[in-house]
Amino acid sequence: MESLSIIGSKEYIEEIDEIKHCGHFNLEKSTVNIGLVTENDLSISNVINDDDRVVVRKTAFSCNYRDKTLILHYNKEVQDMEADDEITFSYMGSEFVGEVIEIGKNVTGLKIGDRVIPNIAYPSYTKGYVGGIPSNHASRRIDDFKENKLVKIPDSMPDAVAAAFPIAAFTTYSMIRKIVFPNARVLVTSARSNTSLAVISALRNFPVEVYAITSSHEDHDILYNYGVKKVFVVDRYEAKPEEGQALVNFTRQNGLFNAVIDPMSDIYLERVLKFMDYDSKYVTCGLYDQYADFSVRSHHERPGLMKDIIMQVLAKNISIIGNCIGLEEDFNMAVKHYEEGKFDILIDEVFTIGEEISFFEKTYNSSNRMGKVVFSYV
Question: d(Cα 145, Cα 166) in Å, to the nearest integer?
Fold first, then answer.
């Protein structure tokens, strides 16, 4: 069965029947060759500790912002091995949906035919459960997992949504749980990012006022349809931490924000502090600059930046909270709200076999992308 993979150059693998070159795309300063790699199908009989394992045939997967760094890393490894006259390839991706096709004899919670996504709950408070993402190889067509690293999904959830659901669901509801309270004024940064779109969608279920920051002048109607009361446009790459007068005027007239949800702390942390109220809370789940060779820097570092941040945090009694993924209870609430039609993952486009390069271009190189991009094998 074929799996979408990072491969070597077309000239190097052209004599290998098991690898089909699909094309290449540019990611930062690198050229990434993509292909379909045919392997023998995995069976429970050749899985280590097979009594406790589940074999899954993937039907769709997606790549997130974190995967960008991993793709660059895997691509370098493939190129380095090619330079040493060795052939290799690498899968990619962190989220998937698939069908259970085999189970070990000790598996009791899943059955053949169940549709599943990865259980990425983190941190782990249960013996025998390893918290976090179970695989960075979501594109591998047939794979095996420990039973507790998979979770069954409702029939009402289509593959396109399911393949983009886990990280957004866990992370979104975890961050909301940590800082949101009734009647709070909540500011969400990077409003067009996948994480923030999920956050804004989820906040419709809570009695709060939602405001958003974005560097784009486009697609504000989607944000307003999700319940955002006002969208503020700022310059992501501005050297000075000054914002548009509209945001300044708003906080003067309406008061400061009680909570900030920020997926890219190295862009916005310093910039939002002046708009946060006393005893407010700020939560972040990541950075923009996750890779040393990113060609466009998110911000301009300056001497004394950290001191200025700490001084503002201390003066206002602001709580700074880090967030990595979330707990099972967060995921369960996300699923409940999804089934009630109160939470969704915005899907920009779904690609399939023959559209491999378009999938990666839209995922990482499209400035007009709005929502998750999914690759479907079926």
Answer: 16
